[in-house]
Amino acid sequence: MQQIETFISQLQKTFYNSADFVAREIDWPGEPFAVICYYGSLLNRKEVQEQLDVSSATIHIN
Length: 62
Fold this sequence. Notes:
Distance between the termini: 12 Å
Helix content: 25-40%
Structural class: alpha+beta
Number of helices: 2
Strand content: 15-25%
Radius of gyration: 12 Å
Order of helices and strands: HEEH
Strand order of the largest sheet: 1-2
Number of domains: 1
Low-confidence stretches: none
Number of strands: 2
Mean pLDDT: 76
């Protein structure tokens, strides 16, 4: 979705286009739009997904 892509682009610019900064759209129950942000050197995608799956709802990183 263009609106989310624009927002993620603005976030990346805010964090000086750091190669380490990750912003991704996620499916979050009850919310039409959701973005998760993290630093790649601190976490990897698998660890982030595992943490999100702990919640009662299944949330997927797009």
